[in-house]
Design brief:
mainly alpha; single chain
């Protein structure tokens, strides 16, 4: 029996080499490779990325051990991942701006870098508040 998209789900398009073309799959695999190269660069070169990664692992492991429900652990983990995304974007902005000014000081570049760093700070505050509220509710009950 040949499995077709109509058997799986009439409104679902199954992504196969025939549907998107082998070149598209190759492109997606190559793009994922570039994303992993970026991740490995961040882990090697950026201390903040390593700290956020450590926090994500700690939450995933310790959350259930300190009494968090599965959903509480997922919520706190998600806030840490949002922080990681902000840090990734902050790093990309900083690297790009550093290339543009080539080591020279420019007040608008400083402002842009400060604003990008502020996004990370806001995410960290959010993660800490969410973690604190969930921890408090678990300690009180």
């Amino acid at each position: 029996m040949k499995i077709t998209k109509e058997i799986i789900c009439p409104k679902l398009t199954v992504i196969t080499p025939e549907v998107v073309g082998m070149n598209e799959i190759t492109r997606l695999i190559r793009a994922a490779g570039y994303a992993f190269e970026g991740l490995f660069y961040l882990i090697r070169k950026e201390k903040n990325t390593r700290l956020i990664l450590l926090a994500a692992i700690a939450i995933a492991v310790l959350g259930p051990l300190i009494g968090f429900t599965l959903w509480q652990t997922v919520i706190v983990f998600f806030t840490v991942i949002i922080t990681a995304v902000a840090e990734v974007l902050n790093t990309a902005i900083e690297i790009t701006l550093n290339l543009q000014v080539k080591g020279a000081y420019h007040p608008q570049v400083k402002i842009a870098k400060d604003i990008a760093a502020c996004s990370v700070l806001l995410c960290v505050i959010n993660a800490l508040v969410v973690f604190g509220v969930i921890l408090y509710t678990n300690l009180v009950r």
